[in-house]
Write a structure and sequence with these properties.
Length: 86
């Protein structure tokens, strides 16, 4: 069981780095919770592969810095869609 978790953590990390995905998007792809993804990359991965963990951390920090922009775009699209329906 432990091998599976470590393997999953590495696969998740590689996916995040390759696709530049968010924790939410990654969780959906792997069929696990956001909490699981977060725990895998922040707690388990540094013990397994510190170099990979630092690369993932950079992607996640970038995502975090940009999330207010994505939220604003989503809200704008929502209200544009609503105004077209009226």
């Amino acid at each position: 069981m432990k091998d599976y978790i470590e393997e999953r953590a590495v696969e998740i990390a590689e996916h995040i780095i390759r696709k530049k995905t968010t924790v939410r998007q990654t969780a959906k792809v792997f069929g696990v919770s956001k909490s699981t993804v977060h725990k895998d990359v922040t707690e388990r991965l540094p013990k397994i592969n510190p170099l990979l963990a630092s690369k993932v951390k950079k992607v996640l920090e970038k995502n975090k810095a940009e999330r207010h922009i994505r939220g604003g775009k989503a809200t704008k699209m929502k209200y544009q869609k609503m105004s077209k329906q009226i």
